[in-house]
Amino acid sequence: MNNVLRKIMAWGSMGFAAAVLAFFTLPHYRQGESSIAGKAAEDIPLQINGKAEPLSDFRGKVVVLNFWATWCPPCVEETPALIELNKRIANRNGVVIGVSVDDDDAAYEKFIQDHGINFPTWRDPSKKYAQDYGTLMYPETYIIDRHGKIARKVIGPQDWNSAEMVSYFDALLAQN
Questions:
Q1: Which of 42, 48, 78, 84 is the most interior residue, by most CB within 10 Å?
Q2: Are 68 and 139 in contact (CB under 8 A)?
Q3: Mean pLDDT score, 89-98
Q4: Dist. CA 45–CA 51, nearest whole Å
Q5: Upper half-sphere CA count for residue 65 (Cβ side, 13 Å)
Q6: What is the pLDDT of residue 47?
Q7: Residue 4, C-beta contacts closer than 8 angstroms, at least 6 positions apart
Q8: Is 142 helix (H, G, I), strand (E, B) or coil?
Q9: 8-state DSSP, 106
Q10: Is residue 133 helix, strand or coil?
Q11: What is the pLDDT at residue 90?
Q12: What number does CATH give the domain 33-174?
């Protein structure tokens, strides 16, 4: 009987560990952090094309605020999808804004040129604003509604052109 109980406990422990691991690897875990949904997006004193444009200036638009770096392979992987997303939402009062945490200005500028970035970007080498938002890894993206409230946080790279994301943005952009 003791041997049977030990086997049940061992299998039960392994099953529990597998369930926990599966939960954290499923897309729904990475696709939104409900604990911050509805909170006001912290203002960032962006400098875009040499002009001061704080994040609050974008109120009234749906903003996809993406924290990234040139040295981050998942960030590089996600860049073409962000470019496409910006094209898709720009004429519906939406915008992608990239905040790079790169220390190296030359690497940042080269990346912008080489990848044909079509959305506003800003470099924050201090990483202060990424930290203020609670960003722990790159890329991390905050989707901000027209009222300046965080609608969703996406951790890690995302296929911004997936059917789920197209549907999500269609619904969000339709809201006033």
A1: 78
A2: yes
A3: 96
A4: 10
A5: 29
A6: 83
A7: none
A8: strand
A9: H
A10: helix
A11: 96
A12: 3.40.30.10
